[in-house]
Amino acid sequence: MTERPAAIESPPTGAFEDMLRIVEELDTPEGYKAELIRGKIVVSPWSKLCYKRVMKSLRLQLEPHAPEGHDVDVAPFLFTFPGSERGFGPDLHVADEAAFEAEGRHADGAALSLVAELTSASTKDADWLDKLDTYGRVVPVYLVLDMQVGEITAFWDPSPKGYRSRTTVPFGTFLHVPPPFDFDLDTSEFTVGSDKKDGADKGVQG
Q1: 40-45 and 6-8: which strand pairing?
Q2: pLDDT tens digits along 7-31
Q3: Distance between start and end Cα atoms, the chain
């Protein structure tokens, strides 16, 4: 497997349930995940090692503000959206713990209160397009950490046509995460690698 996402052949019928069954039965290599994106089964790398610190900071800050009964995790669970015939494994999710009491291998996307995706060169198109469109109809808050640009965008107020509201700030500043979380997120630890050094040289916090 390479760092680029790879689409695999799906059933001729294209039926969502058929594709979902194949995703569940796939023996993906360690460090990879399978998702249903734009009607195709796509296998792509899990988050980079250097993103671990960012996801940990995000998780620890979200946990005290999560809705009651909701869990914050970075485990690679598949969440399905039958209305859009999509199945995504977000980098970080906040979801109702009751969604994980079933014996199946995927959870209902309606259980999510927040998702966060950390972009990479190979996956950012899906994060900004297909996932934004799907999450924007169901999930209360969607955070996109654009790791190549050094910005974080919060989307909220979902509707049948997608999110109605958004705001973007550069890493190193505070982002207000809308209800049901309703707190100011410190993004000073979100810059990674050489970008972190560049930010320090420019006087950016972190």
Answers
A1: antiparallel
A2: 444 444 458 888 888 887 777 767 7
A3: 34
Residues 6+ apart with CB under 8 A from 181: 62, 65, 66, 113, 114, 141
Q: Which long-range contacts (CB under 8 A, 24 or more apart) does 122-131 make?
A: 122/3, 122/4, 122/5, 122/44, 122/45, 123/5, 123/44, 124/148, 126/5, 126/37, 126/38, 126/42, 130/37, 130/38, 130/86, 131/37, 131/88, 131/90
DSSP state of 204: -
What pTM value is reported for the model? 0.83
Beta strand 106-108 with 78-81 is: parallel
d(CA 133, CA 135): 6
Calpha distance 43→78 (Å, rounded):
12
